[in-house]
Write a structure and sequence with these properties.
The chain has nine helices and 14 strands. It is of the alpha/beta class. The strands form two sheets. The protein has an eight-stranded mixed beta sheet with strand order 5-4-3-2-1-12-13-14, sandwiched between helices. The protein is globular, with a radius of gyration of 18 Å. InterPro entries: Cof (IPR000150), HAD-like_sf (IPR036412), HAD-SF_hydro_IIB (IPR006379), HAD_sf (IPR023214). One of its GO terms (molecular function) is hydrolase activity. Pfam families: Hydrolase_3.
Length: 260
Amino acid sequence: MSDKKIIFFDIDGTLLDDDKKMPLTAKKAIFALKEQGHEVAIATGRAPFMFKDIREQLEIDSYVSFNGQYVVLRGEVVATNPLNREALQAMTDLALTHNHALVYMDHMDMKANIPNDELVEKSIQTLKAKISVGYDPLYFQGRDIYQTLLMCTEEEEPFYEAVFKAFDFVRWHPSSVDVVPHAGSKAKGIREITSRLGIAAENQYAFGDGLNDVEMITTIHNSVAMGNSCDEAKAAAKMVTKRADEDGILYGLQKLGLLS
């Protein structure tokens, strides 16, 4: 096993603050880690095309995207885990009867099955990314879809959870929930990278803040929750750092002894 260290960073609420801005201290910290010879990777619920600018800005080419369903190591795709096509068709049919829009996402693009849906536009706008959602109700047919956004409230979500056991539902917005393959997670995607690099568990680190980070934070030996994290992430983490907008990345790395 190598004694090299690897550090995984979530994006929203971790690398980026609530205004979707990256503190300069976070950017400098990433480059300082790389200068010391450590591996730095991203672990996010976003699709690859939704954080291309961040990868370029930080010069990072290893990442876990779609909450673990599409994994890239040093620019090469090393693992994929698409949604079950039959179950996705059934969920599409059922959602349409309730007028709940879906957004289908592969590694290249995303398309909604209802045009100009207000909830789709509202939820995507909160990401403040330069992306738009096209319309193609058949986009999920004949291609691998790694994540779907389902527009429903928290109260409506258990109905879908009870019917579609092939999927896990991870809420990220009051009007939208991520739909991913059952038992797929950032933690699983991370293992695809760490096993290939031969990095020991005690040399693995992860920073996150949301519900979709809880399994990653629970699994990773050195886990850090941001000060702005949800309660579940804070409870699962080995350490809680400051908020993203209070230089939480740098502070956490210094507390871990990875940066001085």
